Structures are given as C-alpha cells and as structure tokens.
Amino acid sequence: LDGTPEKLIDPNGFSADGTVALTSYSVSDDGRLIAYGLSSGGSDWEEWRVRDVATGGDLPDRLSWVKFSSIGWTHDSRGFFYSRYDEPKAGEQLEQANYFQKLYYHRLGDAQSADRLVYERPDHKEWGFQGTVTDDGRYLVINVWRGTEIENGIFYQDLGDPGSPVVELLHDFDASYDFVGNDGSLFWFETKLGAPRGRLIAVDAASPARERWREILPQTAETLESASVLAGRFVVTYLKDAHSRVRMFDLAGRPLGEIELPGLGTVTGFAGRPADRETFYLFTSYTTPSTVYHFDLDRGLSRVFRRPPVTFDPARYETRQVFFTSKDGTRVPMFITAKKGLALAGRNPTLLYGYGGFDVSLTPTFAVGNLVWMEMGGVYAVANLRGGGEYGEEWHQAGSKLKKQNVFDDFLAAAEWLIANRYTSRERLAVSGRSNGGLLVGAALTQRPDLFGAAVVGVGVLDMLRFHRFTIGWGWVSDYGSPDNPEEWRALYAYSPYHNLRAGTAYPATFITTADHDDRVVPAHSFKFAAALQRAQGGPEPILIRIETRAGHGIGKPTSKQIDAAADELGFLVRALGVELPEEG
Question: If exposure means fewest CB atoms within 10 Å of the residue's CB, which of 11, 106, 113, 233 is most exposed?
Fold first, then answer.
C-alpha cells in the first residue's frame, strides 16, 4: 500500500477531446486482468475491454451494446458474466426504448458473437439482469430488476454443477432484496420486506421456504443503507437524518461497536472478501473533499490513505442541519453550508438544491463548484425531500406517483423557510436540480414563479406525458406513474412543467442545460421546455439554454467540460442574483 503507484488505465488517452470516458471496471479474482467499460460522448452505451495488469496491454476482446450491466468474473479468471441489449436500429441508438436485456457469459479470447446466453425472459421485456459471482465462486447470483422499481427478484445458478438451471429463489417481486454475501448455500440479504427502513435476513437456498427465513438484524429507527461481510462480521452503514453511521455485528447479529467517523458526512466503501482483515472507505461532507481511509478490522483503527489536495481552509466554513415544516405538516431536514459568521440579514445569495425521487438519498458531498459559490459569499442549501430514501421506503413512497406533489411542496417550503429565517430574499434565492431534480425545479418555477430570483434546470424530465416513450424512460413509471393510466395521467398533467407554463407570466431568470448525447433523459425535454418558456415569458428576465456537444446525462463528462459548465452556471447565478464578487475573485 505504501509503494509507488503505477499507471494502469488513463482515460485521458482514449480520445483527443476527452469525450471517451472510463465508466466502471472489475478486477479478476487472481488480480491479473481488469475488465473496464468505456462510454463515448456521454452515452449510457458502453464498450467493454480487458487489460492485462502486468503488461498494461489490452486483450483483443471487445463487447458492444452493453448498458446497465455489472461484471461477474468466474474464479478461474477465464471469463465473466455481463448483460447487454440487442443492437438498436440504425439512427435510433440514443432514442430507442431499451427492452429485453439478456445475461451472457463471455470467455476471454472468444468473439462476442460466441458468448453463451445464460438467461433471458422474452415473456418479460422490462426485466434486466445483473450477474455477480459469490466470494466462494460457487454461485452466480442474478439480480432481476424492472426499471426503477424498488421490488426485485433474486435468481441463482450453481456454478459447481455444470449445466444446472437458473433457480428462481426470490420471485415474488414483493420488496427489495440486495445480496450481501453467503456461507455455502446460506444467502444474506438486505431487504425492505416488512421493514421500510431495511433489515438483514438469511435465506438458505437449499431450504428456501419463507417460514425458514431468519432475521439477523431487525429494522431500527435509522435507515439501513448497505452491508458487507468482512473478517467474520457484518459492517453496516445506516443513515441518521441523512448522514452516515457505521456499525459492526457478528454473524449472529450481536453488536460489535461503531466505527468512529471524522464528522457529519457520507460514507461509502467497506468492500472486500469475508476473510479480509482490512478494508477501505471514503468519507466526504460539504466541507471535506472525498478522502479514502484504510480501516484495520482487528484493531478498529482508521487512517487516511489518500486525501485530494484542495487549496482551501475548511475551518472557515460550517454546515448546519435544520428542520422545516412542509405544507401538510411533515418535518423535513435541510443542510445549510456557508462561511462561518454568516449574517442573517436577508441578503445572502443562496442556492437551494433538491432531488426528491427514486429512493435516492441526498447526503453531504463535497463539490468544488459549491465551494467556489461559498467563497463568493453564497449559501448552499440541500433539502432532503420526500421521494428520496433518507427515511426509508415510506419516505420514498410519500413522494411518488399520485403523491409526487408532496416533493414540490417540500421544496417550496424549504425556500420559504430560508426567506423567513433571513438567510436570503426572494430576489437572491436560486433553485437547482438535475434529472429528476430538473423536474423538481421545473415544477417549482411553474407553480411559484414569484418565489425565486433564478432557476437552474439540469437535464430535466420536463414533459411528463411522453417521458416513457424514449430509452429507459418506461422504467420511471414506478416513481411517476404512467401517462397511459387515466388517474395517473391527470396527476402528471397537473404538474408537468412543459404543460403548465402560462403565457404572460413573469418567470425568474432560468438556465436550462442538456447535451446532445443524453440517452437517459433525451434532450427533447429541454428543447421543448426552453422554447415554450421563452415564448411564455412575460417578465424581463432571460431564459437561456446551454446545449453541450459530445456529452450525455453526466456520465463521463471530461474535466474541461465540467469546468466550462460550472463556470457558465456560476456566471449565470452571479448575474441573475446580483452577487458582488470579492476583490480577489
């Protein structure tokens, strides 16, 4: 670990303009090979290659039309499992709906056309498959997913018995099941079955009747985020009011203590094999750049392994967590980060960020762009809205489908709280969100155009009556509802940003961003919304759209494009809110 690093893969060399990006990678069990995925122009489509770690050279293997796939190496390191779609029609690669994913096994050295089809379900076009191999190499575990639904299935195949069928272990699609690890045929899962904030259970594949399932860790007041098996124990990450806590338990579920973290923030990691005595985790917060820690499981000690060199003094900034009351009386948390000694005189330029959907939790995360905003005297606020996963599945469902308006009500209440508590004023308050968060901002500015001085709508879902017709949009029906369902259509139409613009209304200054290769939320959403908003604008404020080329929904955007985009967004906010730049800025 203390040796001199050697370059293995340098994404900067894949294209002259930096638009071919490394998306993910997976190392073989023996450490000799690394499979890695590439995205071109920001598309979700990936091409997978394999590199020899010792020589740094690539093998001839090339796998195309891969999307939403994991990589599961077999323990002989001769090949891996992956998922792909059939090649789309010419000219429709970035728009065609993605159905009928298939799970394959690729043997190194073979052409992709020779890959063995492991599993498909032509009777369920929405099903997707992610195959992983257990740490003992015995089983292929298949996570069966349907769009963004929380409910999933778990199937498996016994790799120790060549030719054995795929067994449908958990096939009711009645809850979420995340595979944690196994001890022989005993499988551990994190599930929300009967536990909206999560619990840990054991299922014996040799005797899988539901009445034989065993609960290892019951549901608690905190939300179970993830679990791993290391050094003969479970390492479990929880969320408490949208920030991380990490606890350890023996395999029977008895507590072994809590891992002390550097502060209020977000933790990811704790990967490894069951026998490993060491692991790594990443800690970040609104004022802490993502720092990697080495953790000694035997001694319970953490040490910094890698810390990025960011030139700023974190002691000059502070994060507060506050709670505000939404329209229906629900208590909602919000993080507020700014320079220490902030004056509450109702004049601070403030950027309010939100998401509120798909069980996604907004936890403290460092970003240089946010730091620049705060260095200019800005306040950065993040509201943990319903629709997210901060408080488990009940919190998520309270902001989904027919209850989606709760998310917008929460966001508007956050804005009103910031004004009422004199952090800012309407003229100096901006709102921002991306993707589902772009929908959030679009709905907020159409419902309350009088409440904000500026809005940033990033790669947003803005036409709620046609979102399901493109690429993976059909999979969002689990969160939004379906435009083909009359009751859900009425709910969608009631808040669809594109359909709720009113001619002659004075809308706030608005900055819309999209990209020509976005095949997640196709850019037509942004094009239509920008044109309609420009036509409807009855006030003096500008309505701008920024269209990035050779980029997509955000995946793999090169650093130069990220800097350009952040500079344009900050420039827009400075102009729209009348921010007075510091002399050194």
Answer: 113
